[in-house]
Amino acid sequence: MIQLEAIRGCLEGSIPAVLATASADGTPNVTYVSQMHYVDPRHVALSFQFFNKTRENILANPRSTALVIDPISGESFHIELLYLRTETEGALFQHMKAKLAGIASHSGMVGVFRLQGADVYRVLGVERIPGPVLPNPQPRRNLLNAMRSASARIAACVDLDGAVDAALDALASDFGIEHSMLLFAEEACGRLYTVASRGYPVTGVGSEIAYGDGVIGVAAQYRTPIRINHMTMEYSYGRAALDGACAHPWPLETQIPFPGLPEPHSQLAVPVLAHGRLLGVLCVESPQDLRFTYDDEDALVALATQLGSAIHALQQQALVESAVTEREARPAAPLAGQALEVRHYAANDSIFIGGDYLIKGVAGAILWCLLQTRAATGREDFSNRELRVSPDLRLPEISDNLEARLILLQRRLDERNAGIRLRKTGRGLFRLEVDMPLDLRDL
């Protein structure tokens, strides 16, 4: 007997499944199915969106047959099904709802698709339909070996900055995935901001996207993986990021280009979680159709789980170490030359250096406080602990994602290359380096 696990590729959705049902008197009905979701080796779930003839038949006669086709080989199968129940809440329902929302956002159909329930069926049997087939290509990588190598990379990291780079480097070298990005969550305002990327013309560090926008935003909103394996029309990360960039109009340009592909044909976004808290989203994409399989999704969920645990542990370690490794701050050396104008807009804590936008939000507030402290006292050495506890800096509440903010700020300053830098000088310690006098303007 053919096992359901062996044909998971037929449930990708790029070729819709066909469902045949019959009414109580035996009248047949055939229709396409929006989603056929693999639940476990003995069950699938179908999306319930409308009360139509199929729904009426299933309630009257619970047996049905589905036709599914492998999108690579063209191999066809019949799946004999028995309707068991409809779930309208819980993990399965939320996952299918999120996937439908991701497809809707990806295709510009937000508000059109609405999942009413997840119809759970028992798989009674799987039968191959005779006919010519194309050969399935060999797997691109041994995913178990790739995961082993990636785990070793992440486990060897001693700070958050290194763990971020290790995860994306592993995706490129171990998994063979050329385009990836990691975004950290800012749950207070329902947004994510890019801290690192690989394979794009621009890094996009500091770019933002709202919960619910595209596959990344939906993965964050529902805390579940979202995988789309075919190109749909009228969608780009840039537009999604811009449409939700700010709740209130802002007269100055503060938009950092998002690093996504202009026409992604395959996308997989996986939430990074730790102890029930959303830390961020790991996203990979490809210009190829059907690039990411169920197996890729399983592997990246495992990678994101380890990354989440590493991030949490490194953040907790930083809380302890920064409290015991402070040293006396040294004054900054006097600087000569033309002053560099740095403007701060209190409305959203945006920072402009020499007229060009740098960063906003909490990261902008941190930089402005550091620059003001340096101007007032001459200091250039600071500690993470000082940022957390000093009332003089008057920072907004940050909790334990301070290290993520500092990584974002450091990378954005390095990318801007305007003569202001943050450099680590020890565990929980860093230095604000400035190459020229500064003209600080608070607006």
TrEMBL record:
Annotated ranges, domain GAF: 159-321
SUPFAM superfamilies xrefs: FMN-binding split barrel, GAF domain-like
Any single Pfam family the record assigns to this protein: GAF
PANTHER family, A to Z: 5'-PHOSPHATE OXIDASE PUTATIVE DOMAIN-CONTAINING PROTEIN-RELATED
Full protein name: GAF domain-containing protein
Native species: Niveibacterium microcysteis
